[in-house]
């Protein structure tokens, strides 16, 4: 689950900078596929946090 949380964290960063048009022409391509997520990238951040919490809860050590 930590891997999923890390991937979602990277995806959040990509969507955040794309939503603010900080990476040039690539942001148009990214936002054409994930339009609503470019407007609200905190949904992906919330999913990343939940995945990390879930991974912490179910880990056996």
In short:
The protein has 61 residues and is mainly alpha-helical. The chain is built from four helices and no strands.
Describe, in plain words, how this protein is organized in 3D.
This protein is an all-alpha fold and 61 residues long. The protein has 4 helices and no strands. Helix 1 packs across helix 2 and helix 1 runs antiparallel to helix 4. The chain starts with a helix and ends with a helix. 11% of the residues are buried.
Separation, N- and C-terminal Cα atoms? 15 Å
> What's the SSE pattern?
HHHH
Shape: elongated
Which regions have little confidence, pLDDT < 50, spanning 5+ residues? none
The overall pLDDT, averaged over residues, is 89
Task: Give the proportion of residues in helices.
Answer: over 70%
DSSP helical segment count: 4
The fraction of residues assigned to DSSP E strands is: under 5%
CA gyration radius, whole angstroms:
13 Å
Q: Count of DSSP E strands?
A: 0
Note the main attributes of this structure:
single chain, 61 residues, mainly alpha, 79% helix, elongated
Helices and strands, with pairings:
Elements: H1 2-19, H2 26-33, H3 35-39, H4 42-58
């Amino acid at each position: 689950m930590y891997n999923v949380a890390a991937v979602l964290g990277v995806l959040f960063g990509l969507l955040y900078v794309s939503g603010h048009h900080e990476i040039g022409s690539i942001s148009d391509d990214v936002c054409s596929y994930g339009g609503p997520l470019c407007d609200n990238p905190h949904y992906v951040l919330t999913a990343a946090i939940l995945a990390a919490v879930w991974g912490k809860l179910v880990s056996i050590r």
